[in-house]
Design a protein that fits this description.
By secondary structure, the chain is an alpha/beta fold. It folds into 2 domains: 3-149, Rossmann fold (3-Layer(aba) Sandwich), CATH 3.40.50; 172-458, Alpha-Beta Horseshoe (pyruvate-formate lyase- activating enzyme). Helices cover 41% and strands 16% of the residues. It has a 7-stranded mixed beta sheet with strand order 2-1-3-4-5-6-7, sandwiched between helices. The chain has a 6-stranded parallel beta sheet with strand order 8-11-12-13-14-15. Strands 9-10 form a two-stranded antiparallel ribbon. Helix 1 links the parallel strand 1 and strand 2. Helix 11 (285-293) runs parallel beside helix 13 (321-334). The radius of gyration is 22 Å and the shape is globular. The structure holds cobalamin and iron/sulfur cluster. Residues 10, 12-13, 15, 17, 19-22, 24-25, 64-66, 68-71, 90, 92-95, 98, 113, 116-118, 121, 196, 208, 211-212, 215, 247, 249, 372, 377, 402 line the site of cobalamin.
Length: 467
């Protein structure tokens, strides 16, 4: 029986979220093609030798590598190791989706899949295993002679309810359960896992689109609440989870669907706590109360910036500051924690605007905040407009590392921005309102590890420089 070897080269910035996309692809390939599948996940053992050993032990007929832009360097090394053993390589995930041509330029890679990998992979695997090459919808394919068959469109899985359960048996689930910290501020050491209920995002934030559109499309496709709750029940039965976190981009886009989900979850009697992300204008108090009644304990909210000029003028977020303040206040009154996502250092953002954002976030009754340094991801609208406006943007994708370098000359240089980022965390978390959450996080080994990991990311001041 032929074998597929899937690789998740997460050497940098590991998290407690298991590679759900790869686990789904593995399950689909097993069910539809009857192939054997093995997964090499470097999250807990980030060494190239681990990947080489995986190839030598598992001897896959084809290798598939999941790549986000931040993983590109290690992914290409993993691909080269496979090619050196004569194994054809398929690349998939956000980076090949955004830049299939650039991905295929690497000699070791034979195919770059656009967006959802399930359908293209089912066509590609037999083809590559037999040493053939040809056109495939949703993938760019390269023959052994270097001839490339491009593809215009991604090829989406038609019905999400027809996807099998992820291949958990191929993932080190106990390691993820103990590394998971999404709901640590709710209860110290809470056992939980990530889950996906939908694909597609209809919104148009300039720092994100059209990457997400290319990945999953703009149309929201949701799983039936019953199927989703079955998966949650299976996770509880097999792994004893006490909570879960939705990786969906905007969980509350479709109000009726959320209400049905709450009904089904409530009726299941599973008694779990959970969290999700939303846009502040898409969750009314009544809906939040209904979600809270069936276990919602944390809400992630994209705030990005407190100044309208940056949030709307640059990021095109489409959410007012009033809506953000209101939603945080409602959550606070319902006992739902909130996690704000913010970015510092937009192309021409001034120091006073950054400081204003830090103060505005600190004032809100939000339990947590993530202050990232802005990076224009290649392929996004903002990357394009910045280039049209004359910003010199680095062509080296390894410069698009959130935590290390700056791929353009910003008004505030990276060193100062990093100082501002430290100040933001200090200011936000020194407020007594957040001390109990911090204490709960520090009260579990996983929480403490996650805290240490975050500190290591924000503390270096001088890593890299501007492009
Ligand atoms: C949850 C999430 C996370 C989680 C971790 C997810 C994980 N398992 O590692 C956390 C919070 C840790 C995270 C971190 C980051 N993330 Co993130 N994340 C997401 C999010 C919201 C959902 C991912 C998900 O689970 N999707 C559901 C599963 C089913 O889809 P999937 O994994 O993408 O897999 C499908 C396809 O991609 C494809 N595919 C994937 N692998 C492969 C392999 C092969 C061989 C093939 C054929 C196909 C294929 O097929 C799969 C099934 O259809 C996405 C946005 C989104 N909606 O996708 C952003 C997203 C992936 N993240 C992004 C970014 C930028 C980051 C960070 C840099 C953010 C930061 N400031 O820290 C870090 C980078 C971490 C790293 N080491 O790479 C970007 C990536 C952009 C890019 N060009 O790479 C995205 C697209 C968001 C965005 N719009 O900007 N992230
Ligand atoms: S940032 Fe969130 S809401 Fe905005 S386009 Fe991306 S996924 Fe959609």
């Amino acid at each position: 029986m032929p074998k597929l070897g899937l690789v998740f080269p997460r050497f940098r910035y590991p998290s407690g979220d298991y590679p759900l996309g790869l686990a789904l692809l593995a399950a689909v390939v097993r069910r539809e093609l009857g192939w054997e599948v093995a997964i090499c996940d470097t999250t807990f053992d980030a060494r190239l030798e681990k990947i080489a050993e995986f190839y030598d032990q598992e001897k896959p007929d084809v290798v598939g590598i999941g790549i986000s832009t931040l993983m590109l360097g290690e992914a290409l090394e993993a691909a080269a190791l496979a090619a050196a053993r004569g194994i054809p390589v398929v690349a998939g995930g956000p980076h090949p989706t955004t830049d299939p041509q650039g991905t295929l330029a690497h000699p070791a890679i034979r195919a770059a899949v656009l967006g959802e990998g399930e359908l293209p992979l089912l066509e590609l695997l037999p083809m590559l295993a037999e040493g053939r090459a040809g056109p495939v919808q949703g993938a760019w394919v390269k023959g052994l002679d270097g001839l490339v068959w491009p593809s215009e469109h991604r090829h989406a899985w038609p019905d999400l309810d027809d996807l099998p359960l992820p291949a958990w048996d191929l993932i080190d689930m106990p390691a993820y359960l103990s590394a998971w910290g999404q709901l640590d501020t709710v209860r110290s050491g809470l056992r939980g896992l990530n889950i996906s209920g939908a694909r597609g995002c209809p919104f148009s934030c300039s720092f994100c689109q059209p990457v997400l559109d290319r990945m999953f499309g703009k149309k929201l496709r949701q799983r039936a609440p019953e199927r989703l709750v079955e998966e949650i029940a299976a996770l509880k039965e097999r792994y004893g989870i006490e909570g879960f976190w939705f990786t969906d981009d905007t969980f509350t886009t479709n109000r009726q669907w959320v209400e049905r989900f709450c009904d089904v979850l409530g009726a299941s009697g599973l008694d779990l706590v959970w969290g999700c992300t939303t846009r502040a204008n898409l969750i009314k108090p009544e809906l939040m109360a209904r979600m809270q009644a069936v276990g919602l304990r944390k809400l992630g909210i994209g705030m990005e910036s407190a100044t309208e000029r940056v949030r709307e003028g640059v990021y095109a977020k489409g959410v007012s500051l009033e809506a953000i303040e209101q939603t945080v206040q409602t959550a606070h009154s319902l006992g739902v924690q909130t996690l704000l996502f913010l970015m510092l250092g937009a192309p021409d953002e001034r120091r006073d605007e950054v400081l204003h954002t830090i103060e505005a976030a600190t004032r809100l009754r939000a339990s947590e905040a993530s202050f990232s340094l802005f990076v224009p991801i290649p392929g996004t609208d903002l990357h394009r407009t910045m280039s049209e406006q004359g910003f010199e943007l680095s062509a080296d994708v390894t410069d698009y590392d959130y935590y290390a370098r700056q791929p353009f000359h910003a008004r505030i240089d990276r060193r100062e921005l990093r100082l501002l980022q430290r100040w933001a965390y200090l200011r936000f978390y020194s407020h007594p309102y957040r001390w109990s959450g911090l204490a709960r996080t520090a009260g579990s080994p996983a929480g403490l590890r996650n805290l240490g990991r975050k500190l290591r990311r924000i503390l270096p001041l001088a890593a890299g420089g501007s492009a």
